[in-house]
Design goal:
The chain is elongated and about 55 Å long. The longest helix is centred in the N-terminal third of the chain and has 17 residues. The chain contains one helix and 14 strands, in the order H-E-E-E-E-E-E-E-E-E-E-E-E-E-E. The chain is mainly beta.
């Protein structure tokens, strides 16, 4: 056999699947080389979401809430495909988006705690739908700020941060 090894078809397929799984975990945008999906926020008070990446495409949706967190799912030149927490969205020009991280409170009257601990003193409460600035996330807790108040809330009470994502 001259020192050559034979690799079975099953081994080749298993290796290909493993590479595909790693690539799926590490998806990167072809324009920015940033992770996909990722979260951003709306920089302006109004942003058109178009059917395709360009001004010639019809507007399907208009975002009307400044600082709204959005998930970027694709990139094409100066356009980003985004969606809100309900899955509504489309292609938005990158100039309308910011890397400043925000989140929407999903749990009504969630307690903001002084520390990332359910036994820590409550410093405030936030209604569902509040858009807050993400200050820090670690473990199952995120520190948010809104209306001059800051506190820690369970990550599960927010939309706009990925499971296991660390923010500092």
């Amino acid at each position: 056999m001259g020192g050559k090894r034979r690799i079975g078809l099953a081994a080749v397929l298993a290796a290909a699947l493993a590479v595909g799984a790693v690539q799926a975990q590490e998806a990167r945008g072809p324009v920015t080389n940033l992770p996909l999906p990722r979260f951003v926020s709306l920089k302006t008070g109004e942003g058109n979401a178009r059917r395709g990446p360009g001004l010639t495409h019809a507007v399907d949706w208009v975002f009307t809430r400044r600082d709204m967190p959005l998930r970027v799912t694709a990139e094409h030149e100066h356009w980003r495909r985004v969606e809100d927490r309900d899955g509504a969205g489309g292609w938005v020009h990158y100039a309308l988006l910011s890397g400043v991280r925000t989140a929407i409170v999903e749990t009504d009257m969630v307690e903001l705690r002084a520390q990332p601990d359910s036994r820590a003193p409550e410093v405030a409460r936030a209604e569902a739908g509040v858009v807050a600035r993400l200050i820090e996330c670690r473990g199952d807790w995120c520190r948010i700020g809104a209306a001059g108040l800051r506190g820690w809330v369970p990550r599960a009470a927010l939309w706009g941060v990925a499971p296991g994502e660390t923010i500092r």
